[in-house]
Amino acid sequence: MKNQSNISFVLDDKIVTIDFLQDKKFKPTNSVLEYLRSLRTKKGIKEGCGQGDCGACTIVLGEINDKNEISYKAVNSCLLLLPMIHEKQIITIENLASKKDNEVILHPVQQAIVETNSSQCGYCTPGMAMSIFGLFKNHKNPSREIIEDALIGNICRCTGYQPLIKAAQNSCKGQYDDFEKNINHTIDLLRKIKKENNTISIKTKDLYYFRSKSFSETLQIRKENSDAILLSGGTDSTQKKLSGKPKPLKIIDLSGVEDLKYFTEDNENFYISSGIDIEKLRTYATSKLPVLDNILKVFSSLQIRNLATIGGNIGVASPIGDLIPVLFALKAKVKLQSNSEKRIIEIENFIKSYRKTDIKEDEIIESVIIPKSDKNIIRSYKISRRKNLDISTLSATFNLLLDNNLIVKDIILAFGGMAEITKRARKTEDFLLKKKWERKSVIEAIEILKDEFNPISDARADKEFRKIAAGNLLLKFWSETNE
Predict the structure, then answer these.
(1) Which end of the chain is more exposed for a tag (fewer CB within 10 A), N or C?
(2) Whether pTM exceeds 0.70
(3) Kindly report the CA angle at 350 between 348 and 355, in degrees rounded to 5?
């Protein structure tokens, strides 16, 4: 496949091309936020935290989907590296309003914000408007729950959220807008870019950046560059983190590999590809894997879920990663693939130590395999200082199988935030096994659980709190199953 050093995308209704070898102003490791702020006409976008927490830099991306339509996603531009917007449409706050006979006509979202007095200092208002615009393009008459979820990733210290919720309710009623009117033109521009279908390969003295649509080609590059950083959604490896890495920096960007974006099932298993974004996974999990959906509801913000992937979440191997305890409890397996072989390993064995996994230098996480278990009772829990957009203080997922006499046939108690890696409470499990599932047994098990882990004390909680909270979660689980 032919290589190219440039990317192309649609901005302001025209194709924009950046050649990283010719235009020295930008690097592949520059964020989309940095690029947009460099443009004279794109000052509405703001940098607040630079880590995807505040939402001031929210933009909306348009992309041709399987139905030959454009899908719209609100994302944090501070987390996106420039090559990740290749073949996409960028929509910023400046694109919402239109002009007719030299008169500015506000977009329905902007008009609703004005009418509900939803803006005060105005610094974060563009990000808020773009989140509501993303809602506008995806939902007609959304519920309050959906509206709140869309705004969770936008933090504001002065506006208050009630007017913004009202603005979303007033604007998201299925109105026709100029983006819909011009959609065929936008699709034509995106198709023109897609026709090239080349691999992006950028080599300089300090950097090697590779991005391909072909999984086989990506595996070959992985084999030849085993020291490269693998990026999928890239939400954990922000531009600021990458800037501190030693040179030359090598990056293999997996975000364009379509073979890594599927969800399938058979009679025995669910198969979740590593590159599927968390929000899309959530749409499947709602009916297929409710326990996964439960934890995904409090997984960061919509902007981050639109970028983050399940492969990235387990590949980072954080001891407080939201998905890993759930996957432990579900007895999930990780499918790894290199240029020459495939390997399937239980996720418990895949996580080796703090942020270390069993992945080999030439391997890429291809998918996660989850066995179906209709008779099991499974619940997931997350404790954090804030309900949403917060890192876990600790989390737990429990998997219970009882016989007809309420005797424990099988049990998994998986905890995050209680050790340097996600761990099962093996001694507590052994104690409960073959015992009757009753309060007395659970209270005795909690005493064993207190001594099974030696968690750290940090800014989120001290070790004693974590021990007590872990026991309380087990008791809560019993109470829910008893009901």
Answers:
(1) C
(2) yes
(3) 105
